[in-house]
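Progress note, project year one: complex with pyridoxal-5'-phosphate.
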Amino acid sequence: MAADAQNMDALYQEIILDHYKRPHGAGLRDDGDAEVHHVNPTCGDEITLRVHLDGQTVRDVSYHAEGCSISQASASVLNDLVVGQPVDRSLQVLDEFQRLMQGKGQVEADEDVLEDGIAFAGVAQFPARVKCALLSWMAFKDAVAQATGKDQA
Amino acid sequence: MAADAQNMDALYQEIILDHYKRPHGAGLRDDGDAEVHHVNPTCGDEITLRVHLDGQTVRDVSYHAEGCSISQASASVLNDLVVGQPVDRSLQVLDEFQRLMQGKGQVEADEDVLEDGIAFAGVAQFPARVKCALLSWMAFKDAVAQATGKDQA
Amino acid sequence: MAAAYDVARVREDFPILQRRLAGDLPLVYLDSANTSQKPRQVVDAIDAHYLAHNANVSRAMHQLGAEATEGFELGRTKVAEFIKAPRREEVVFTKNASEALNLVARVLGDAGRVREGDEIVISQMEHHSNIVPWQQLSQRTGATLRWFGITPEGRLDLENDPITERTKVVSITWVSNMLGTINPVQQVIARAREVGALVVIDASQAVPQIPVDVAELGADFVAFTSHKMVGPTGIGVLWGRYDLLAELPPFLGGGEMIATVTMEGSTYAEPPARFEAGTPPIAQSVGLGAAVDYLTELGMQNVAAHEQAITAYALERMLEIDGLRVVGPQEAVDRGGAISFTLEGIHPHDVAQLLDSRGIAVRAGHHCAKPAHLLFGVQSTTRASFYLYTTEAEIDALVDGIRHTQKYFGA
Amino acid sequence: MAAAYDVARVREDFPILQRRLAGDLPLVYLDSANTSQKPRQVVDAIDAHYLAHNANVSRAMHQLGAEATEGFELGRTKVAEFIKAPRREEVVFTKNASEALNLVARVLGDAGRVREGDEIVISQMEHHSNIVPWQQLSQRTGATLRWFGITPEGRLDLENDPITERTKVVSITWVSNMLGTINPVQQVIARAREVGALVVIDASQAVPQIPVDVAELGADFVAFTSHKMVGPTGIGVLWGRYDLLAELPPFLGGGEMIATVTMEGSTYAEPPARFEAGTPPIAQSVGLGAAVDYLTELGMQNVAAHEQAITAYALERMLEIDGLRVVGPQEAVDRGGAISFTLEGIHPHDVAQLLDSRGIAVRAGHHCAKPAHLLFGVQSTTRASFYLYTTEAEIDALVDGIRHTQKYFGA
Ligand SMILES: Cc1ncc(COP(=O)(O)O)c(C=O)c1O
Ligand SMILES: Cc1ncc(COP(=O)(O)O)c(C=O)c1O
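Model obtained:
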């Protein structure tokens, strides 16, 4: 870990900075099936996120996020990866992303599943930032659970 | 202090053991002017003490004490020293006894005032036992204050 | 003594046990139920934390902050594993066992889980820290406090059972700090379950000396304290079932325990943070983690076996003394390593003083268990208590010291 | 810098300041408002306590117990002298400043000194630990919480004074941990006195950096925390006027805080014991005592002067940076050594991360002061905070680091 604390380029991959500067799907859109508000109590970063379902498909994920580059970019990548997917598939992607983030930098992620998301591999080496990367994903998980009537797992 | 922790005879003077075995004036007698109950929270030792005044004179101090040799002997000595004395004088004796006990073994006590009480000089070297020696005296102080209508100082 | 367990080796880890007292006498420390001594390993861990990794936790994002957070949270993980907690988030750090017990009593009241007309059950052998919070809760709510009695032998009186359909909480000590009794907590828990009462176990004397598995135990809350288990002062533990903790309102308010704060109101974090307001005992968690490692290394089975053996030896030797009365079970069966006793005609203070003059450290007084003393008709007792570093030679010194005391006071 | 004050010498006492971080970079610790570093003297005092004098306090009558009690109570005496308390019994040990503030809020409610219809006054620049306990008290009692505002410059808004005849308690921070503002607490106290309100001062950031005289101050309660004043974690202080403490009911119940316990009810000890249930933070009092000695040795006037000088230097250098906005007073007048700032277009997390990659430890977030952040229209800030070991070279490193960050993010 020691050396990584210095290696900012591992953390701030170009892909991440791009998503941060031009987030995909940002903004809250009408008629979501569930809306949640999540906060990172450490730093106060917040996200309001809505899932819009179409039967068993994620039609849209709309959101308003205030936070650092990592949390904003992560919300943007989330939007890319789950919109248009079956709900089940979206939760598999979530699992894979979570596995990557909690792997302390030891985990190989599946690029086919995570696409741009693999850029977050570097974040996993910064324990304090893992929460930033997961903020939107945990909000998504919560919202899906509410929209589909299941309890939050 | 180090050497004193070992010197039991400095603590348990013959005079103290005598008072302990044959306490003077023990027992609660009727028509006190004030009754107090004091507890040493450290060890649970207790004393119930009554002062019986006669105008400005301490006619009697009666008490029921449960406690160690030091606390019992001290109540006995208290009885000796204050019964029959003017209230003011009894409080001077109390001050002198308190000065001796809190002097950490560095204080010379006035034998004319304290009589048998100077046997407690050794107790002053045992910080944990000072409270035992003072239990009855603090109760006396409290009771006198109540009996004479003054607040406890 | 268990063959595998080498007390002499263990003692090398505790520099204080080499202390010479007044008169150049060696220390004979028989006051471990009051607080245990600390091995060098624990002190070193605290040192290393302060000198190389000190920072505030959670809220710091820098390298030092990450290290401090890792150390602090690792302490939590180690404690959770030590007591076999299903989740590490079930371990709430408090300042001591007393705060842990107060926390439970307060939040159960605030949550309306104990109300007027309800009953709370404790026992007469509880430590004041497991009495006063429940008295206070009764006063606040109008609930009634009921008590398990104690048999003349010093056992929990299960025959006369105060648990009723109205009982909402049962809070019982696992091991008595005064009588030494190890209570059949499983039976009490089963009984409480029948009436749907919550169960709190005061494990302050249990976790240090017997292997504990909270998952198997089946209580709702378990409280204990670091300083009695070779850990630092300033930190205690409340273990609680996660679903229950997650339902309960916060205790103290402040930094770290919130989700968000606005002028209109605040929302609270998930457990354990919800119950840990302000800067937590960071270095103390590191130290407690090292203590737990130390105990695990020795093996809690071995620690328990040693405690059992040394207690049996002490009981046997002490009961040989004329005029000595053990207050508590006389047999080393279901019995921890605390032996309270009286000597005929000699006040416990005076006993302790004489023993101290020979370098033997015991405690005299009510041991924060006044109701139990009252029951046995004594105002105070002298207590010798043993731990993983206690030797038979120390018990022999105690016995010699007691005889000397009797001679000194001519009793 | 004051001529008498030799920062380089002071730094030698803090081994952690020699730490090398990732990439073999030296540590630049600018997070002292979060927690301070500890000098070797404090760590050594804790060590010596555990390894040679460890025992439980008050209740132990043996030599080790006497030594431990002496060490523990000496910590109290030192703290009392440090803040010029009229009596040492006015110093109550808690686990941190948060517990101290909760204690006051709880017992004032329990004593009926705050009731429905009454008002409690705090300010928008309070730390969550001085907000949430009062919100909770309001909820429990039906009292109304009212707030001092903050001027655009970051000062307490005394013009729009929320104190009324109904105000029962005013609780205000002396030095803001976010804005750095040193508040005119004397004025607030005088105003509170006019309406007969009690005054609580959160001195968590004040006691570490300015000379404090509670007798002169004239407040009723003062709370602070050891870990921010070069002392250990796990201990905080509530100072209270003795007569007031003596009137108030207890907070937590348990061992040490009682006079007597019976099955029918309990009576409580005098202050400070009444408010210190259970085994207290013994080793931590010893450590805090050593911390106070350390600060006294340096001289609090010198510490304050150094803080003032280094803050002035930092403000001057930081305000040169384009796009940097200081949230809080821009002048080093009535200002403590915490500077919160924003950088245009870069989130505080990212600023802190980039600085950390250069070994510079700052904090990013809401600093447990969400209402103040909201008021200034920011969700979070980056905060650099200084203490008695901070050098101008470290400020220069910070300024370089900020410029580097701006370049990195192309802002
Ligand atoms: C102004 C202020 N008040 C209260 C606190 C709380 O102190 P602690 O976390 O030690 O309880 C802090 C520090 O975090 C603070 O800066
Ligand atoms: C059985 C029991 N419960 C509770 C406590 C309280 O522990 P602490 O003083 O650490 O709060 C003790 C120890 O004093 C104890 O022996």
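DSSP finds 13 helices and 17 strands in chain D.
Chain D has two domains: 7-30+299-408, 43-297.
No further modelling is planned for this target in the current period.
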